[in-house]
């Protein structure tokens, strides 16, 4: 069975979207700091940005 997709708190999503609006790609250092600040894993932050970029591309 697949792992369940995490549902992030709306406040966390709002912060992720704020950073995403500033830059669509973040460095490893920025990812590490953001993950620590939001109590997420780096992989979760990386995936969120990847999925958000994909969703933005599909919207166009």
UniProtKB/TrEMBL annotation:
UniProt subcellular location: Nucleus
Entry protein name: NVHD017-ANTP class homeobox protein
Cellular-component GO terms for this entry: nucleus
Protein's UniProt keywords contain DNA-binding: yes
Keyword field: DNA-binding, Homeobox, Nucleus
SUPFAM superfamilies per record: Homeodomain-like
CDD domains xref list: homeodomain (cd00086)
Principal localisation: nucleus
Superkingdom in the source lineage: Eukaryota
Pfam families to which the protein is assigned, alphabetical: Homeodomain
Domain Homeobox: 1-59
DNA-binding region: 3-60
Keyword DNA-binding: yes
GO molecular function terms noted in the UniProt entry: DNA binding
